Amino acid sequence: MPRTIARPVLLIVGLAAAVPLAAGVLSLAVSRGTANPAVDIAPVVQPGEEMPGGGATSRRSVTDRDAFSHFSYGIDPEGESRFNVGNAIFRKLWVAAPSSTQASDGLGPLYNARGCQSCHQKDGRGRPPFANWPDETAVSMFLRLSIPPETEEQKELLAAKRVLSIPDPVYGNQLQNIAIQGHDGEGHMHIAYTDVPVTLAGGQVVTLRKPTYSVTELAYGPMHPKVMLSPRVAPPMIGLGLIEAIPEADIRANADPDDANKDGISGRVNEVWSISQNDVRLGRFGWKAGEATILDQSATAAAGDIGLSNPLLPLAAGDCTAKQPTCLNAPNGNSEKHGGFELSKELLDLVAFYSQNLAVPARRGAGDDDVLKGKVLFYKSGCTACHHPSFTTGAVEGQPHLSKQDIWPYSDFLLHDMGEGLADGRPEGLADGRDWRTPPLWGVGLTEIVNGHTFLLHDGRARNVEEAILWHGGEAQHARDAYAALSREEREALVKFVNSL
User: Fold this and answer.
1) How much is the pLDDT for 15?
2) Cα–Cα distance between 243 and 74 in angstroms, integer?
3) pLDDT tens digit sequence for 460-472
4) Residue 102: pLDDT band by 50, 70, 90 thresholds?
């Protein structure tokens, strides 16, 4: 469930920007410099690197679809029991109220998925509809919606960080394409792809696909004329508890918003309102670091994706707006048994615990010659300027298996300007329309085994690791160009290293 989802007024935006071309070679704008010096490293496996989740790394098989679904190693028997119950809730398919099964009613009325696992299939990575299946309904991908602030009240809410964006007045925070019986889904996301050829060293041509997004069959009238659309695929669930355990000061220490060291990298933090802590906290989760805690993320996902009220977001009609009175007045599943909500505090806490404890798989082939060669090239190309290799977690109350662990996520969890090619054109808190949080790379090479595809980036436009690299711009332009200048054999080695993580 922890995918950054709409809170009462949480949004995202944007159409894919045009990519400038010169002489048939992809050219992405650099806005913050290209100094980014190379980093030298010996071609060896560093201590602990083969266990990227530290002592919590899974010892289970990585050769089947359950590779992302194992609990943290070292968890105690009570924790294992809670994990299993949380898994059952995560996999539950909800139904519309009223229902004879009160433990499972409360779906919708408008929604994107009937359960957490519907988006995070096998606890892994979502994808856009397959291009050769034009009528496929998107389930593990949806569109965020927002508009520029129009009132002083809206501007004050943004300034105080009480909200990250302003919802569309009719369609809310996200486009919900499915509805319960008797209601209409809001509309359908449409994606059109344009081929973008890229020429690499040695003459190899790679064809990227540039997406453009629109919405058809709007059921509740027109959207706001200034609405901004931003696509989102569900990210993998592994290692979330370890990310949450990284001391805030250690993440902030890598931030350099004004590029004081003149290396061309200007990582910045996002600061967001935590609905569980009732305060402004460091954003860690989501494509733009829009959520502070796993509990926040679980609650907003329940309300926004599935339409379930819960103690942190007591919205019985989910993301429905005042312009959708039939939706607001629909029967709901709030019950005394669940504390007056559709998803009780106990169940929400179990989902959050489950999400905290999905284990990171062990590395595969970390000591292979090609992998080590690729590792050296990854460092020398400047990739680690944003994909920071390692951290040490702090103390996690009641969960010693997540505490004081040396982990290797290959992310700094900061916002970076990624250039016009990846821009969604819309701010989210302190993130502007070109900013994205560096995603962790652990487990990326297992996506095909777990989810049956290799689509990457926030909207799944990249069909493999190489395409994802070639979409990098802005602060990552130097690293992208360094990769493009490698020989074909060197590029294959670098990709093999990434897929070993």
Assistant:
1) 30
2) 17
3) 999 999 999 999 9
4) confident
What angle (nearest 5°) sits at the alpha carbon of residue 498, between those of residues 496 and 500?
70
Average of pLDDT values for 59-67?
Answer: 95
Question: What per-residue confidence (pLDDT) applies to 356?
Answer: 98
Residue holding tokens 């200048």? 485
User: What's the rounded Cα separation, in Å, for the pair 471 and 460?
Assistant: 12
d(CA 355, CA 316): 23
**CB neighbours of 129 closer than 8 A, spacing ≥ 6?**
136, 137, 138, 141, 191
Supply φ then ψ for residue 303, to 5 degrees.
-75, -45
CA distance 92 to 89: 5
Q: Say which residue the tokens 């913050």 belong to.
A: 32
Name which of 55, 90, 101 is nearest 75 in CA terms: 55
> Residue 135: pLDDT band by 50, 70, 90 thresholds?
confident
- CA gap 27, 215 in Å, rounded: 29
- Which range has the worst mean pLDDT, 96-110, 185-199, 252-266? 96-110
Contact 318, 303 (CB under 8 A): yes
Burial label, 218 (beta-carbon count in 10 A; 0-12, 13-18, 19+): middle
Write the DSSP string, 272-338: EEETTTTEEEE--BTTTT-BS-HHHHHHHHIIIII----SSS--TTTT--TT-HHHHTS----BGGG
C-alpha torsion 102→120→113→338, nearest 10: 20
Tokens of 393: 């977690």
Residue the block writes with tokens 């994909």: 387
Q: Identify the CA nearest to 455 among candidates 211, 289, 241.
A: 211
Mean pLDDT lowest for which of 2-11, 59-68, 160-169?
Answer: 2-11
How far is Cα 307 from Cα 109, in angstroms, rounded to an integer?
7
User: Could you tell me how far CA 435 lies from the centroid of its own chain?
Assistant: 13
* C-alpha distances out from residue 197 to 24, 194, 467, Å: 6, 10, 11
Residue 137 binned pLDDT confidence (cut-offs 50, 70, 90): confident
pLDDT tens for 430-459 read: 999 999 999 999 999 999 999 999 999 999
What's the pTM? 0.91
Q: How far apart are CA 342 and CA 111, in angstroms?
A: 14
How many Cβ atoms sit within 10 Å of the Cβ of residue 49? Answer: 17
Pick the closest to residue 357 from 145, 113, 58, 96 (CA basis).
Answer: 58
User: Residues with Cβ < 8 Å from 497, sequence gap 6 or more?
Assistant: 370, 371, 372, 373, 374, 375, 377, 378
